[in-house]
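Let us begin with a simple case.
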Amino acid sequence: MQKRYGFEISSAKLVCFLHIFLIIFLIGCARNGYDPSKITHRPRIFLDGGPPIPILDEYDIAGTQLGSFTDIFNPGEEARIYGIWVGLDRRAAMNLQKETAKNIGRNLNLVVNGSVVGLHPIEATITNGFIPFMFTHRRSEKEVYSFYQKLETSVRQIQLELQNLRN
């Protein structure tokens, strides 16, 4: 038995304490908030008229942003057109640059859970890794925000899934 700091600790208790501390520490490091049940939207990007293989999938997407445009010729509430800006990781951005350089004049389709939800006409090579997609159908503001919230949550959870796979 060792007597330090006014109390006694046996070697067995010390080893047990260190094992428990190590287990708690490792579990705490491994948990990063990943919850697979929160992945409800798996976005993929296809080339319109191309093979049914996505040029970019959900693991290439680094983040999303919601944006809107206003139709200046129509002053009503229904004049607001919403879109999703998709940001890609570095490797995917380089792949996107190559694909858009070869396919100017075609469209990119944003497909979520098997349905085309957005499109982007390729007018020039995309060099910055961001793709603005306009929704293919008009949606109410409430529907847009609900969809975006689910998409953003899914993208964040997919990034955490990737992080877990790398560790």
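The second case is a distinct protein. As before, the sequence precedes its structure tokens.
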Amino acid sequence: MGQPNLSLLLVLLSFSTVTVCYPTGAPISACETMMPGHVGIFPQPKPAPYIIKTNSSSVKSGRPIQVQIVGPAYRGILLQTRTFAQTTLFGKWLQPPNNTKILACPKNPVGAITHANTNLKDQSTTYIWMPPDSGSPPVLFFIATVAEAYDKYWLGIQSAILYQYSVETSGVISGSIETSGANEITWATNIFTVTFLQFTKSLLF
């Protein structure tokens, strides 16, 4: 009788470990490292089975962006917006979806979002991020740590790059290159606009 009881106790302890370690969100220490703090558990190798999907590829002040984690259902998450070679958190997360909450990081108390419990989340869970009013760098990206289970998580999942949206009052895009139909590339500046036609089947020497 003693041995079966011991086995049951070990099973219960294992289940407790999975659900008790940060079941209500990532710790404050993860704000910079993005590490979930699962002692003795290392991140899974890349590539992750998740992608970060957004409804926009550009950032414009006052225009929110929808973010979804596409892939298998997950239990834990830490989601932020950064630029290259920095740990600064940009913008703010709006009303968190069910089973998630804002993580009050010291340098930006509304700049990170995490799980509020270990209930399953899926790609229908939509996070809403609002760009900063000013001071946004030229490029940003979303970055996430996603935990499918306590002992199975992926670190440093990045979205595609989001570029700063900038339009001059004249309606001309400043210092940018944009593409339109029929292999036409338009280079627009404040002073002049030059149009180049690309001929893909012939070369002029």
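The radius of gyration is 22 Å. Helices lie at 2-20, 30-33.
Keep these points in mind for the review questions at the end of the chapter.
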